């Protein structure tokens, strides 16, 4: 039986579909839209990917194998077989799933981060680079932050090969991000620390209050590719998100523009 969420009495409907890209007896793979939470949290219950899938398939045992931030779009794997949960969740906990993200951020010279390190492949070129730092996320504080300490967050950042003309004209650039760790807000924190906050980010560099029913100006961050070896079939599984990076409709007067 499904249990009612103790804290939710009413919540806005999130008016975006949740495409199912793949399903078998063990997993369901979806292309999560921007603004839709992966699972119930805070005010969100029915308007979450998890509860939508349980309703669509009529299966109360479905659980996520990993998570995406509510504001990030892209590929998420859910496990429908109770006996299979451990194997799929361990794929992500043990970093055996390959993740590739894409984002839009300013076309600006990078800044020197206050904490952590930056290592370039070519010292004379700004990208590609390896960004390492110690990221902390405190409960009840929305923003994550960097501080001195042992490295727990590692991201490789490259300039994407395809640069749409409208993005360039707006003063932005497409970046491809390869996280090898999964700290909360890691990509957003790492890009912001370089002076390249992701377009549409309401958290970095400063918090901006957004109405819960405002679904305009999505965060331009997409979990584009997810690849892993299925623990049962031993086949290489590869999924790619359909969501485009888009500067149309974005507000360029906000503080994320450089």
TrEMBL record:
GO biological process: enzyme-directed rRNA pseudouridine synthesis
SUPFAM superfamilies, A to Z: Pseudouridine synthase
Domain Pseudouridine synthase RsuA/RluA-like: 26-193
One GO molecular-function entry: catalytic activity, acting on RNA
Database matches in Pfam families: PseudoU_synth_2 (PF00849)
Catalytic activity: a uridine in RNA = a pseudouridine in RNA
PANTHER family: MITOCHONDRIAL RNA PSEUDOURIDINE SYNTHASE (PTHR21600), PSEUDOURIDINE SYNTHASE RSUA_RLUA-LIKE DOMAIN-CONTAINING PROTEIN (PTHR21600:SF84)
Name of the protein: RNA pseudouridylate synthase
């Amino acid at each position: 039986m499904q249990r009612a969420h103790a804290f939710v009495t009413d919540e806005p409907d999130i008016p975006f579909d949740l495409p199912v890209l793949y399903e078998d007896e063990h997993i369901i793979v979806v292309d999560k839209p921007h603004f839709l939470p992966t699972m119930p949290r805070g005010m969100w219950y029915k308007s979450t990917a998890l509860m939508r899938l349980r309703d669509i398939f009529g299966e109360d045992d479905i659980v996520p194998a990993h998570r995406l931030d509510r504001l990030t779009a892209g590929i998420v794997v859910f496990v429908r077989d109770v006996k299979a949960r451990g194997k799929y969740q361990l794929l992500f906990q043990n970093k055996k799933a390959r993740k590739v993200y894409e984002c839009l951020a300013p076309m600006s010279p990078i800044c020197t981060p206050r904490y952590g390190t930056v290592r370039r492949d070519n010292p004379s070129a700004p990208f590609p680079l390896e960004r390492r730092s110690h990221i902390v996320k405190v409960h009840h504080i929305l923003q994550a932050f960097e501080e001195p300490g042992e490295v727990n967050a590692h991201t490789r950042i490259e300039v994407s090969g395809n640069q749409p003309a409208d993005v360039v004209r707006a003063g932005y650039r497409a970046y491809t991000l390869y996280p090898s760790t999964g700290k909360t807000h890691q990509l957003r924190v790492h890009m912001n620390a370089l002076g390249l906050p992701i377009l549409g980010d309401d958290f970095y560099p400063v918090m901006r209050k957004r109405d819960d029913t405002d679904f305009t100006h999505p965060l331009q961050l997409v979990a584009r590719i997810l690849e892993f070896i299925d623990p049962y079939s031993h086949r290489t599984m590869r999924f790619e998100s359909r969501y485009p990076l888009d500067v149309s409709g974005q507000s360029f007067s906000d503080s994320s523009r450089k």
